[in-house]
Specification:
Length: 310
């Protein structure tokens, strides 16, 4: 994968892709490049206004692109169900679980879950399960879930997924990103064990340090102006562009030979550079913990993966 870039994305004509959080940042870039290669792309966005603006911008950059907007709030399981049931496609070739929040002040989703765990993991767990029949119907389908190099800061705590005992914004974020990787591991294991789903590849990716609005949202919500300015300065001075940060996601989503449960990130110190295999914490490949997270996620969301048994 040395030097791999968006120019190496294979032809996507005839493929249907769903990209969450596609109105800005990594999700927008991924949606644009998939559309540029011929995919029909659903931009799944929480804000209809921002999503519509993203569609208009994308069509300006890629005239004739086949794109559409779907409203999806991953912090509201009713919205996740409505989005999934409203998709008109019997076959989905790619689900890119990209949307996320980072280092927010403590809050809860519409269903009462701690926001970062609820949005980053539970929302995507429910969405993937609801779209599973359409993914199983597409030969060579992929589910790519975006994690972070920051996952190494903390393992998940299934005894306190909502961080009731103690809340630290970065620990909660790291737990949610570890959950993304552990979900990918368990999904890949279950797909491999299922004759029906063995052709579906579940993989993960991370962007390294990419300049998006993810870094500034938390400080802005809390009115921490100094921290927000520091994040903006860090983005300018040290981060790679959203275009570069999206490359590991696009590689995992489209490159030939991507293996199930692989984790792709930037090549240089997990920070920047061309896509390469990424290091991951040992707890994200723990089969027993994967089963426990899966059972808890099914119980909390009410979404079960009927075709995939443990």
């Amino acid at each position: 994968m040395t030097g791999w870039s968006e120019r190496d994305i294979p032809d996507q004509d005839g493929r249907v892709a769903v990209v969450t959080g596609a109105n800005s940042g990594l999700g927008y870039v991924a949606a644009r490049e998939l559309a540029r290669k011929g995919a029909r792309v659903v931009l799944a966005c929480r804000s209809e206004a921002r999503g519509s603006a993203a569609v208009e911008r994308l069509l300006g950059e890629v005239p004739g692109a086949r794109v559409e907007l779907g409203r999806l709030d991953l912090g509201d399981l009713a919205s996740v169900r409505a989005f999934a049931s409203g998709l008109p496609y019997e076959r989905i070739d790619l689900l890119l679980n990209n949307a996320g929040v980072m280092a927010l002040p403590r809050g809860t989703t519409a269903d009462g879950f701690e926001t970062q765990f609820g949005v980053n993991h539970l929302g995507h767990f429910a969405l993937t399960g609801l779209l599973l029949p359409a993914l199983l119907a597409a030969p060579g389908a992929r589910v790519v879930t975006v994690s972070s190099m920051m996952h190494v800061l903390a393992n998940i705590d299934l005894g306190d997924v909502d961080c009731v005992r103690r809340y630290g914004r970065w620990v909660a974020y790291a737990r949610s990103k570890s959950a993304n990787l552990l979900f990918t591991h368990e999904l890949a294991r279950r797909l491999a064990a299922s004759g029906e789903g063995s052709h579906v590849v579940a993989a993960a990716a991370h962007p390294g340090y990419a300049a998006t609005n993810l870094q500034t949202t938390g400080p802005r919500m809390e009115g921490r102006g100094l921290a927000e300015r520091a994040m903006r300065a860090g983005n300018r001075l040290f981060a790679q562009s959203a275009e570069a940060g999206a490359l590991p996601l696009l590689y995992a989503a489209t490159a030939p030979g991507v293996r199930p449960d692989s984790f792709t990130g930037p090549s240089f110190a997990m920070w920047r550079g061309a896509p390469a295999p990424a290091r991951r914490a040992p707890w994200t490949v723990d089969d027993a913990m994967g089963e426990r997270l899966w059972a808890a996620s099914e119980r909390l969301t009410g979404v079960t993966y009927g075709a995939l048994k443990g």
